[in-house]
């Protein structure tokens, strides 16, 4: 099974705090959905991935969080779930 993003699949809400002010961020959606496939932002992100720390970013789904306090968007890397994590979640949900 592939890894899946719990936020994209509606299993979890995006719950992250603003890195600047710690205000809870609103979920603005998935980064690539938001900007589209042909946006220059895609190239920036791709070059970041190849020049930076690709291992640390594997199985991460990039989301946009909006901070109403700062009026700023922040890119959030949501950790994707593997089969075991999903299984544990399903078990916990059925109790
Ligand atoms: Zn996602
Ligand atoms: Zn903020």
Tell me what the structure shows:
With 95 residues, the chain is α+β, with helices and mostly antiparallel strands. The longest helix has 12 residues, at 40-51. The protein is built from four helices and three strands, in the order βαααββα. It has a three-stranded antiparallel β-sheet. The protein is elongated. The chain has helices spanning 31-35, 40-51, 54-57, 83-94; strands at 26-30, 60-67, 72-79. It has one domain (26-94). Helix content is 35%, strand content 22%. A hairpin with a 4-residue loop joins strand 2 and strand 3 (72-79). It binds zinc ion (2 copies). One zinc ion (ZN) is lined by residues 5, 7-8, 30, 61, 63, 78.
Shape: elongated
> What is the N-to-C succession of helices and strands?
EHHHEEH
Task: Tell me the span between the first and last alpha carbons.
Answer: 24 Å
Biggest sheet strand order reads 1-2-3
Low-confidence stretches: 47-53
Q: pLDDT average, as an integer?
A: 79
Chemical compounds bound to the protein: zinc ion
The Rg value, from CA coordinates, equals 15 Å
Q: Tell me the structural class.
A: alpha+beta
Q: How many helices?
A: 4
Strand content: 15-25%
Number of domains as seen in the coordinates: 1
Biggest sheet character: 3 strands, antiparallel
Share of helical residues = 25-40%
Strands, count: 3
How are the SSEs placed, and which strands pair?
Blueprint: E1 26-30, H1 31-35, H2 40-51, H3 54-57, E2 60-67, E3 72-79, H4 83-94
Antiparallel strand pairs: 1-2, 2-3
This protein binds zinc ion (2 copies).
């Amino acid at each position: 099974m592939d890894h899946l993003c719990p936020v994209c699949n509606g299993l979890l809400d995006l719950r992250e705090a603003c890195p600047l002010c710690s205000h809870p961020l609103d979920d603005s959606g998935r980064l690539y959905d938001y900007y589209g496939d042909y946006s220059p932002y895609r190239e920036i992100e791709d070059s970041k991935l190849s020049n930076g720390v690709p291992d640390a970013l594997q199985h991460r789904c990039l989301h946009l969080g909006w901070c109403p306090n700062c009026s700023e968007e922040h890119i959030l890397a949501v950790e994707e779930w593997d089969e075991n994590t999903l299984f544990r979640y399903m078990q916990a949900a059925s109790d």
